[in-house]
Amino acid sequence: MHRLTHRFTALLAVLVAASGLALFGISNAVAAHPPAGQKPTIVLVHGAFADGASWNPVIERLQRKGFTAIAVANPLRGVASDAQALDTLLATIDGPVVLVGHSYGGAVITNVKARSPKVKALVYVAAFAPAGGEAAAQLAAKYPGSTLGETLAPVPLPDGSTDLYIKPSLFRQQFAADVPARQTALMASTQRPIRDAALNEASGTPAWASIPSWFLLAGADKNIPLRAQEFMAGRAGSRATATVEGASHAVAVSHPNAVVELVRRAAG
């Protein structure tokens, strides 16, 4: 009786394992062989003083249009290392990808190493698009209008560098003046800091030199002046630009429809 019970238990374990492997195999087969005409995956990269939730209004609308959207947890530690983390994620995605970067996230997508047809478009949303050797801080200061430096609260780190936050009392007026006060209070409390070295790190060879780009410009941006955004869009040879008049730096939160429309165009 004991021997029969043992054999039955072993057989049951084999069946369960086989079932699990079959399900795993089906899942991988679907991922590895996307259906013909599959829409590109939209990968969204947030910038400084924000997190992945800043893309929520955009993601909700993209999903309603049938897109798969992924909001990356951008480390905000350094351009090269953050871009490497993004490359690691992109390697796990089958099929075409549209990369969308906001603010410093634009510098990250600019440094992506994926030169294959996988990345079919870059979308910059009130974002940095540096050339080789340029840093985000350098571009922000290229034209007058940025008041970010006056609002920052530094936090020293053990390695001698500094984490930068926007002072909560100044967050709305600096970052999201066209977003309701209750919402910006939450955004200020959940903001993620950027390491000062990341804003001053020189960019590598720009992805926009070989991948088509689209730009959404925020007309009342106090982080990246509009003239700086226009300069970067023109230099990158943008396929299309759209300016949202009166929009703050948090244009993806205040005007998600404009972001989605540009992403849809970039996705083809």
Describe it:
Residues 1-31 form the signal peptide. It comes from Lentzea jiangxiensis. Residues 42-261 form the AB hydrolase-1 domain. The structure is a single chain. This protein is of the alpha/beta class. The chain has one domain: Alpha/Beta hydrolase fold, catalytic domain (Rossmann fold), CATH 3.40.50. Helices cover 42% and strands 18% of the residues. The chain has 11 helices and 9 strands. The protein has helices at 2-32, 56-64, 79-90, 104-110, 136-140, 168-175, 181-190, 196-199, 226-235, 251-254, 256-267; strands at residues 41-45, 69-72, 97-103, 119-127, 152-156, 162-166, 194-195, 213-218, 240-244. The strands form 2 sheets. The chain has a 6-stranded parallel beta sheet, sandwiched between helices. Strands 5-6-7 form a 3-stranded antiparallel beta sheet. Helix 4 links the parallel strand 3 and strand 4. Helix 2 crosses helix 11 (256-267), helix 3 (79-90) packs across helix 4 and helix 6 packs across helix 7. It is globular. The protein starts with a helix and ends with a helix. The model is unreliable at 1-34 (pLDDT under 50).
